[in-house]
Design goal:
The protein is an all-beta fold. The chain contains no helices and 11 strands.
């Protein structure tokens, strides 16, 4: 018996043919910020004088070399008081505030210090023309409070004459080294309203 031999038939092989040009991906563009940097200002914006400034003296405040004697004579605008001698040369914590007379004439400036601190926590204030050097608290001296608020019912003030266009610095410091003070209010005023805080 003859067995027929099967001849494999040709099976068509499909070949994928790519036609056309493959798409090109767009180049990666780095993200850019649209915000505009704000330039730093080197000069603080002046604010009106006469505005009460609340403060406190703590161990984190800077220190000055020593303190002056409280002679019970507040400075006046009439004359520049002779700076009293040093009470001690210990490190006393302080705050400093810069002001300017923006007018074209000298101004009589009143510096008022209010505080409930007393005794070992008393505070004191001094004024300096131009700048304050904590290493030399008598340099550029312009005037002082004379007595602490705690010695005068919680409020004391003094006067200093500031020439036209000049800056001045007012300090508040602890009378007893490391004594601190939980609260005080400093107010600097002049009749013309020409003083501004820097």
């Amino acid at each position: 018996t003859r067995t027929p031999t099967r001849t494999p038939s040709a099976t068509p092989t499909r070949t994928a043919t790519v036609t056309g040009t493959p798409p090109t991906l767009p180049p990666t563009v780095p993200a850019t910020s649209t915000s505009t940097p704000v330039p730093a200002t080197s000069t603080p914006t002046p604010v009106p004088g006469g505005q009460p400034i609340p403060g406190a003296i703590s161990s984190t405040d800077p220190t000055q070399a020593g303190r002056i004697v409280r002679d019970w004579v507040p400075s006046t605008c009439a004359t520049v008081k002779t700076v009293p001698g040093n009470g001690d040369m210990l490190a006393h914590h302080y705050d400093a505030y810069t002001f300017a007379n923006t007018s074209g004439s000298a101004q009589c400036v009143t510096v008022k210090l209010d505080s409930t601190c007393g005794g070992a926590n008393d505070v004191f204030s001094m004024a300096y023309l131009g700048s304050f050097n904590p290493a030399s608290i008598t340099a550029n001296y312009r005037g002082d409070l004379g007595m602490s608020p705690g010695q005068n019912g919680g409020s004391t003030s003094y006067g200093v004459s500031i020439p036209a266009g000049q800056t001045f610095v007012v300090t508040v410091y602890e009378v007893t080294a490391n004594g601190g003070c939980g609260n005080y209010t400093l107010t600097v005023t002049d009749p013309a309203g020409a003083v501004v805080r820097r």
